[in-house]
Amino acid sequence: MVCDSHKAFQAGQTILKIQDVSFFYGRKQVLDSVSFDITAGRLCGLLGPNGSGKTTLFKCCLGFLKTTAGRILLGDKPLSHYTSKHLAAHVAYVPQEHQPAFPYSVREMVEMGRTPHRGALPVLSKTDRHAVEHALERVGLRALADEPFTHLSGGQRQLVLVARALAQEAALMFLDEPTASLDFSNQLIVWETVRDIAAQGLGVVICCHDPNHILWFCDDVAALKNGHLLATGPAAETLTRKLLETLYDRPIHTAETGSRVFVYP
């Protein structure tokens, strides 16, 4: 039976607990006692300069790395208690970019998201096909379902990866700088899509280098520097000029235009 796992959490309920997590690469400490929660129905931005530990924290939360100290709980169970397949049914990952070796169609790319729910047979079930079509619909790419993934624009390819993650029907989605190589218009399309996904009940964590995107789209922020969590909380209240200056070691200015707050050096 397919587990539509995101339905197991209600909006406002904690999905993932990161508790005093530390991590070492050899003798080099990359994370130092990091703690915060990820909540269903909210979009959390992970912000910090290069080398702050964001990618390592992502890998720990995805089960790619084992924490040196502390623990990560998915629901009420430690991440270490999940098999890889079971974890994949609960947590989805969208990389910064993906270059497939073969010209898969958009639909075939999204079908890959059903792998954690499928049995030994290679044929997709009716439930699998419904999940794939629904995911394509949610990101606005149903009309391009039969197009080769390699023929799409950068923004469209990124939305396909989001759709693939949606097809997993996971409770939690991690995105690693998904708009880093996109133009401004496509950045906004991806961010708006992710914002809508979180609003529909998923917990979403997005690694980002632009504090403006955090302010415009995120409910919460977790700010890292040199492996330390400097602050976490609602983005509009937490991401102050003082915090940004501490993060980036330089003067920061803010300006308001209509309902938008802009951050600039």
- How do the SSEs run, as a string of H and E? EEEHEEHEHHHEHEHEEHHEE
* Share of β-strand residues: 25-35%
Largest sheet: 6 strands, mixed
Shape field: globular
The value of Rg in angstroms is: 18 Å
Number of strand elements: 12
Please work out how many helical segments DSSP would assign.
9
Q: Could you estimate the helical fraction of the residues in percent?
A: 25-40%
Overall structural class, as computed from helix and strand content, comes to alpha/beta
Spans where pLDDT lies below 50 across 5 or more residues: 1-6
Average predicted confidence as pLDDT: 90
Distance between the termini: 52 Å
Overview of this protein structure:
With 265 residues, the chain is α/β, with parallel strands linked by helices. The chain has nine helices and twelve strands. It has helices at 54-61, 84-88, 106-111, 126-138, 154-167, 184-199, 211-217, 235-238, 241-248, and strands spanning 14-25, 28-39, 43-47, 69-74, 77-78, 91-94, 172-176, 203-208, 220-225, 228-234, 253-257, 260-264. The protein has a six-stranded mixed sheet with strand order 6-7-8-3-9-10, sandwiched between helices. Strand 9 (220-225) and strand 10 form a beta hairpin. Helix 4 (126-138) packs antiparallel against helix 5 and helix 5 packs parallel to helix 6 (184-199). It is globular. Residues 1-6 have low confidence and may be disordered.
